[in-house]
């Protein structure tokens, strides 16, 4: 008997390999039995021929030869039956093992997809906290209430200090209620002061927020004023006195630098080396638009044909044999998520 490695991490593929080995051994042994019975039949036939030549003296030997011939036929029948029955059982076992392996692998990919979307959720939850906190900063509140040149410069410097510590942002903008940018944190890199953003979805939605405790989280978009960078923009009300229910004075928008952060997540999914080349890790928005891809393809231009069948998570096999695993954003703390999905598509 072959020894089993003591490593507890035996995979279903190992069981399938053992099953195939058992099938091959069975076929070999049945073949050996048939070879022996074939030789016995030949010997019995030769014995019958010789006993016939011997006449009466060979009759006793003829009986023995007939018995040997009958026994060899019975053994052949048993061998054939054994081969058929074992072949059927082994084939069923192999099929079951393949199904179990597919189920285990599919669920593993679902777990990896969940891990990817959870990392994003926790990351973006922190952004919702940042924007509401910074919107109460006294320099920002004062500049929104009285947008003098000096006040706006001071607010810009304050936002610059924030950006020096929070490197995940491209820029921070303080806007008035008419959609004009009053100050920014990186004026040397992005000359945006005085530019109009009233047509931006994040401004329209942010301006309508009911209180300073609320926020708006936008989907991934290209921001022309930031050099066409992919950004996730968060907005919160700047209110009088920095209080949640104070009179609205303006809007703070913070622009999360999406591309490097998302790339780190999709490329960091813990796939085995042998499966990485045949796998594609994706983040999809609520409309199945690709917002991040481990191969870098189709970002913000491709719509992935995700078939969830109204499930929050799961996996399925495409017609070509590829496995698609997915998990919808579960949200984190007060961040409910935007209906995004983590997805892994893996070729067989």
Briefly summarize what is shown.
Keywords: Chemotaxis, Transducer. The protein has 348 residues and is an alpha+beta fold.
Largest sheet geometry? 6 strands, antiparallel
Span between termini: 32 Å
How is the CATH topology of the domain at 135-261 named?
Beta-Lactamase
Q: How many beta-strand segments? A: 11
Strand percentage lies at 15-25%
The total count of helices amounts to 7
Protein name: Methyl-accepting transducer domain-containing protein
GO cellular component, one term: membrane
Family: Belongs to the methyl-accepting chemotaxis (MCP) protein family.
Keywords: Chemotaxis, Transducer
Detailed description of the structure:
Residues 33-83 form the Methyl-accepting transducer domain. Belongs to the methyl-accepting chemotaxis (MCP) protein family. The chain has 348 residues and is of the alpha+beta class. Among the domains are: 12-104, Methyl-accepting chemotaxis protein (Helix Hairpins, Orthogonal Bundle), CATH 1.10.287.950; 135-261, PAS domain (Beta-Lactamase). Helices cover 47% and strands 19% of the residues. The chain contains seven helices and eleven strands. The strands form two sheets. Strands 1, 2, 3, 4, 5 and 6 form a six-stranded antiparallel sheet that branches. A hairpin with a 4-residue loop joins strand 1 and strand 2. Helix 1 (12-54) runs antiparallel to helix 2 and helix 3 (138-145) packs antiparallel against helix 4 (149-165). The chain is rod-shaped. Mean pLDDT is 87; it is low at 1-10.
